[in-house]
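A student in our group prepared the protein record below, which I am reviewing. This is what I was given:
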Amino acid sequence: MSEMSEKTKPPYFSLVGWSWVALGIFGIFMNLLGLLAIPGVLAIKKMLLNPEEMMAPLAQSGLGSLSPEITGHLLPFLNLWIPMVILKFTLSALLVYGAWMFLKGKRWSYFFLMALNYFLIAGSMAGFVIGLGIMRNVLLKMQASGLLETAGLNVTVPAFYNPLLILMLILILIPFALTAIYFHWTPVRLYFGARLPSNL
C-alpha cells in the first residue's frame, strides 16, 4: 500500500470528491443533449443563412422577418455550438476521471481540480456578464424592430443589476468558493503533499 493511501483522509474528503464526480456526470449528460440538438442547430443556421427560405413561414405566421442585426447576433452563437458542446463534453469526461483519481489520492488530481475550480469561478462570472450582455443586446434589437410586439410577447429586458440574477450567480459561486477554501485547508494540503505557506 502506498504511503499516501495509508494517510488519514481529511474530513469531508469523500463528499468533495463525489460531488466533483456527480458534477462531471451531469456535464456529460447535459452535453449529450447538446449533441442531440446539433441537427436542429444546423437547420436554424441554414434558415438564417438563406433568408428567402425563412420568409415564407414567418410571413404566414405574421411575424415578418428577422433583422440582419439579430441574425448577426444569432449566427456566432450557432457557429460555436458544436465545438463548444464537444469541448464541454470532453472536459466533463476529464472531470469525472480527475475526480475519481482525487478519491484515490492521486496528487496531480488535487492540483487539477483546484485549477478547474478557479476556472469555473472565473468562467461563471465572465459568462454572467457576457451572456447577459448578448441577451440584452438581442432582446433590445428585437424590441426595437417590433418583432416581440408582433409576436405578442411581453418580454422584459433584464438589467445587469437585476437582484434575482445576481442572487442566482451568488448561489452558483458559493459551492466553488467553499471548495477553494477546502483545497487550501491545511489537512488537505498535507494529505496531497502540497507546499504550505511559509507562515504556517
In short: The chain has one domain: 13-191. Confidence is low (pLDDT under 50) at residues 1-5. The two ends are 30 Å apart (CA to CA). The CA atoms of residues 8 and 197 lie 21 Å apart.
